[in-house]
Write a structure and sequence with these properties.
Blueprint: H1 7-14, E1 19-24, E2 30-32, E3 38-40, H2 41-53, E4 55-61, E5 65-67, H3 76-88, H4 100-111, E6 128-133, H5 136-139, H6 151-164, H7 167-172, E7 175-179, H8 187-190, E8 194-198, H9 203-216, H10 228-234, H11 241-253, H12 259-273, E9 278-280, H13 294-312, E10 320-324, H14 331-342, E11 345-349, H15 359-373, E12 377-381, H16 384-387, H17 401-413, E13 422-428, H18 436-439, E14 443-446, H19 455-466, H20 477-488, H21 493-507, H22 512-521, H23 528-540, H24 574-584
Parallel strand pairs: 1-7, 1-8, 4-6, 6-7, 10-13, 10-14, 11-12, 12-13
Antiparallel strand pairs: 2-3, 4-5, 9-11
Helix pairs in contact: 4-6, 9-10, 13-14, 15-17, 19-20, 19-21, 20-22, 21-22, 23-24
Amino acid sequence: MITHPLSPLYRAFDEGRSALLIEGRPLYDLLPDEDGAVRPLLESLRRGLRQRYGMALLSYSLAGGLDWDDGRIADERDRRTLAEALRAHHLLDIPQDQNETVRVIRGISALCRVPASAQRWADGREMRLAFLFEFGEHLTPGGMTNGSQTDGQLVAIELAHLTGQSLALRSSGNLVLFHAREGLLDELVSGALHTVRLALAGEPEKRAFLERTLALYPAARFEDGIDTAAAAALTSNTTNRGLEALVRASHRTGQPVGARDLVEQKSRDVIQLSEGTLSVLDTRRVAGLKLAGRNIAVAAKFLKLCSARLLAGDPSTPANLLLAGAPGTGKTDLAVETAALARVSAYGWQSPKGGIVGETERRSRLQATVAREWTPNVCYCDEITESLPLQRSDFDGDSGASRSVMASLLTSLSDDTRRGKSLFIASTNCPWRMGSAMRSRFEVLPVLQPLAEDYPAIIAVTARRVAPACTVDGTEAEVRDAAALFYQKSASPRHIRSSLNRALLLRGTLDAAAVGFAARDFTGVSDHASAIYADLWALKYCSSTSFLPWGDDPTNYPFPPHLAGLAGASGLNEAELNRRIEDYRPHANV
């Protein structure tokens, strides 16, 4: 069953709330309405208010002026009654000058407090009125320093505040609505309003929308392997307008809508709706992926378990995971694979910092809000210690923006209601740059450099990712020799992939001989000391002995030299680990 996106608004009015702030979904988005038609949300609101409450919807914006939509009122007597009410409060023929907004808000403030019984529809029902202020952040903008507002803005802010607090409005049966982007309305106004956040289209609504849209555009089609259910899953929790544009374009051109088109459209929608604080990660990049290596196996196994729990909506699922270890060890692939296996959207978590005082705080709140709403999902922050402020500091050179980001993230990560709905995964090479308060929110899993024995399998898997048709086998002698050479040069899996790509470009094919060439051609520019340093710190902050790569069987684990002697009775030899960290500290540049 599809919940109508305007249901929260109607419910708030039914509860006796007569002054509302609408946030979230744009009112000009499209929806499959209750009567089977596809129409803008604003038009659905107009119809719903009239049918449910006998309300006429009047809207005002700086661009459109006051619109009472007299053309939609069929009965001449009703048009005359409404026009007389508007004229009595000086809302007809308003001069378009710098005082227009004040005149409109003042007139509406007076009219909305008039009891609905004062005028009636031709059928005898009370004529209630709903007033919608569109782009409210332009009428009563927030974030302005006291004294910087114009006289007109000050009057508009005061009138809007008084109207929202009015007992006469509450008893009148009328309704006042402000529609604005989150956090951009003046606080004096938003504080007087009850906030209603309209949800974006989830999968059920997307399916219904696509079925009706395809009926409107019968020549439209999807590429093979994509049906309405798959398209709905790929574009869930976004607006419908972009999807409608893709279907219409297919109808007009005959070109099928592909998975890439859907993912790109969702990416554009997510960036816009989150104001650049989230991006879409394409889970198709890990299709058929097989991560090889003993040092990644424990983390991969645990994340597969998390995927299954997330798919089932199990509240015992961890809420936050930190993948720590050297660069290029597959941490990003692990995170994206987790989302793919759980069949949920994957979002990239971006820094919300802005250049205007107060903007960072607002964007931080928006980021946390939309990530919480667009569930189920996996949110991934790459190199979190470089992307976000994670340690408490007395530094205030950015007017508190960094502290605000950290506070918002701490609050978000501490929200246990996210368990089984949203999984936050972060990665870092430098876990020591994370404060203890932040680190305590995470389960920390070490993802270490691969072992020498892992290199042949890593090469074979990577070769198939670079050239899917290649038949490179890790058991071939030339491949094993190349693996030994890559290991001697401290090549990470990322270095190996770059080298194989380069070999394919230079030689035109990727076979065992090309792999050997790639290993010899690699210059070994990796910083092995820094990679070891990152590994040691990842072990130091490991949350559980079960996450250690040698697990419960250290006897059969082939410890490389920098890890030899670290297996202790309780999982780790802490004293020896700390000593090695100090030894490598002067040589590391992570």
